[in-house]
Amino acid sequence: MSVAVSGVAQSPEDSAIADAWPSPRVAWYAVFVLSLALLINFLDRGILTLLVPAIKADLGMSDTQVGMVMGFAFVTFYLFLGLPIARYIDHGNRRNIMAFGLFLWAGMTALCGLARSFGSLFAFRIGVGVGEACTGPATFSILADLFPPAKLPRAIAVLNFGYTTGNGLALIIGGLVIDLLAKTSAIHFPVFGDLRVWQAAFLVVGMPGLLVTLLMMTVPEPARRNAAPVLPSVTEVTRYLMMRGNVYGPLIGGIALGTILAFGSAGWTPTFFMRAYGMSPGEVGLAQGLIWLVLGPIGAMIGSAWAERLQRQGKDDANLRVTVYGLSLAMPFSILFPLVGNAEAALALYALSVFFTTFVLGPENAAIQLVTPNRMRGQITAVMLFTFNIVGVGLGPVIIALFTDYWFQSEAQIGSALAASAALLGPAAILVLALGLKPYGRAIAAQHATGGIAL
């Protein structure tokens, strides 16, 4: 039986390759290495959130400038080279581009430790974004060629152990190291000389990236499934997105709004606990880190299992439905935890917010991949990640900083800024995603009826 993809008929040999999924051993080994790559990526981001007071003091930065370093600097690279890299991912060797990105990520992260001003730190954080631009679209494209659609949410949930573990370890280890070295004004590094604690932290965090780069080269490049021999043009991809705007619009828009809230909260929650309750970086890191290490993986697996169960029940919109449910459950706790006035109660409510938010990690990413043709997967994932990063990661930390600097005009009001952003963005994200439930379900049902993605 031949499978038609954009007017190109596959031979029986090609169809046999498409029907033969890689062995579980190969597929899950790839997930392990890809998860390590995600872990070191978020190790860097997590440690940065604990270093805010020290960086502000040494470089004389405002909250808004710190927000720009956390957000816009990291995603600036996407503005220029995100799409060209994604086009290569749609026809080139995805494993190699990921290894290249990880190598550059490690070097630029280490260079952040040599920053002497806001401008130099901003520039080095732009370089760190290279790794994300190379690894994000390639990761999801590879996974979709390693796992059947029914198992993809679970694979992505396991992949996101790297996200939850990276956050947890960064907060725990970073906090303890910062506390231990708090009384040391400078640390001597060979070649680099005397460095502040926050500068040394960046140098140390960059080193594991070189090891993961070597591991990445041991991951086999999977065969592309139902891929057309001709790479689609940007115009063709744009036309496809517009033609299915009722599916992709709510998906990409809702995820972007949710990401503004998620990364804004992640960037400033450690600072909130330090400012509001006088906790040290070590105390904050241990508390938040344990929450991410314990509840993050549990929430991710519950979310993926829930989506799989709904799929077995015939719910074509299962992945998007669980995303809406998870955000809805998390929203009240995201609003309340900065307002309760008690550290223990705030941590408990924050834990519930993290738990329910991680329900969406597998389903929301699987939702995009399952309605996207293989030959466009890298480029459309790049569009999603472009929006995700430019709007979500770029704006999230900055919006909260603008609240404290200009609306409340006080650093001490960081809790009110966190609550205000959750109250505004949480319902908006849920509403936009909910608008996509019916068209998304119809798109998945059409695939089941035709045996593939209609182009």
Q: What would your notes on this structure say?
A:
It is a single chain. 76% of the residues lie in helices and 2% in strands. Helix 4 (63-70) packs antiparallel against helix 18, helix 6 runs antiparallel to helix 10 and helix 13 (245-277) runs parallel beside helix 18 (377-407). The chain has helices at 12-19, 24-50, 52-59, 63-70, 72-89, 94-112, 118-144, 152-159, 161-180, 197-206, 208-216, 234-243, 245-277, 281-312, 318-336, 343-357, 361-370, 377-407, 414-435, 437-450, and strands at residues 4-5, 8-9, 187-189, 193-195. The chain contains 20 helices and four strands. The strands form two sheets. A two-stranded antiparallel ribbon has the order 1-2. Strands 3-4 form a two-stranded antiparallel ribbon. The model is unreliable at 1-18 (pLDDT under 50). The protein has 455 residues and is an all-alpha fold. Strand 1 and strand 2 form a beta hairpin. The two termini are 18 Å apart. The protein has a single domain (20-220, 234-450), classed as Up-down Bundle (Growth Hormone, Chain: A).
